[in-house]
Design a protein that fits this description.
Elements lengths: L3 E10 L2 E11 L4 E5 L6 H9 L5 E7 L2 E2 L5 H6 L2 E4 L11 H10 L8 H7 L1 H4 L11 H13 L5 E5 L7 H16 L4 E5 L2 H7 L2 E6 L2 E7 H5 L2 H8 L8
The protein binds adenosine-5'-triphosphate (ATP).
């Protein structure tokens, strides 16, 4: 059974029709990349899954249950956790306090804060620092750690590299590779195609809110034409 299955999903902001009959599937322990250029509808897709955009049609199944009419809280309590593009760490709380809040909000079993510090050594050194004093990369790590401490059944990462310096992107890549090695199911959106494809096994390309292509990452490495057509990038290096 799939962890997540979208069938003919349409999404709207008010009267603006953004997603058109979108299909998407994520299997257990898979890392799936959702790619597309600026404004293609990647964030909207994630928000539609989490219920943040209530105006949705079609089927959204999580572990076989239709969640398309469920509230944000109900979907979160099922273990669907979004790390939003804008990060949203609590600025006045320390790193540890930020993690405690996430841990205490968990509906099911939460993970241990010390376990998170093992995964995120950068945060270990910053335990007592307040959110507002962290760099963009450190905030992104904290944002991912807060989602992970809730032991998500499905982790949604919205453009995690957005605005980060290349050296920080490398650090984030190391951490996320470690995370996905721990059998976490992930749907990741990225404009940084190389970053996403290095982590993922399968990919979807969406264009103007519709499915444009789907396949394995290996297949996509053979299709530079798609990258030119839909992602406006020159090339992707195979591993
Ligand atoms: P980006 O990389 O820019 O985040 P994206 O693929 O995530 O791109 P979305 O943010 O999902 O794209 O935006 C899809 C479309 O929805 C765009 O045309 C955008 O202008 C529109 N849109 C986004 N947010 C809203 C909103 N709150 N109200 C109305 N339209 C919106």
């Amino acid at each position: 059974m799939s962890v997540l299955e979208l069938g003919d999903v349409n999404g709207y902001y008010g009267n603006s029709h953004i997603l058109f009959d979108l299909d998407l599937e994520v299997e257990q322990n898979e890392v799936v990349a959702l790619l597309g250029r600026n404004g293609a509808g990647k964030t909207t897709t994630l928000r539609t899954i989490t219920g943040t955009i209530p105006s949705r049609e079609g089927t959204i199944e999580f572990r076989g249950d239709d969640i398309s009419g469920d509230s944000v809280d109900a979907i979160s309590n099922r273990g669907v956790k979004l790390v939003p593009e804008e990060r949203r760490v609590f600025p006045t709380l320390t790193v540890t306090e930020n993690m405690k809040v996430a841990r205490d909000m968990t509906a099911g079993d939460a993970r241990d804060i010390e376990e998170m510090y093992d995964v995120f050594p950068v945060l270990d050194e910053l335990r007592e620092n307040r959110g507002r004093n962290l760099s963009g990369g450190e905030q992104q790590m904290l944002s991912v750690a807060r989602a992970l401490i809730q032991d998500p059944d499905l982790l949604l990462l919205d453009e995690p590299t957005e605005g980060l310096a290349p050296v920080i992107v490398d650090d984030l890549y190391d951490v996320l590779s470690d995370v996905v090695d721990r059998d976490v199911t992930v749907l990741i959106t990225e404009q940084n195609v190389d970053f996403a494809l290095d982590l993922a096994e399968r990919a979807y390309i969406i264009d103007k809110g519709s499915n444009a292509w789907e396949g394995t990452v290996d297949q996509l490495h053979e299709r530079e034409d798609l990258l030119d057509e839909y992602l406006s990038v020159g090339s992707v290096e195979a591993d």
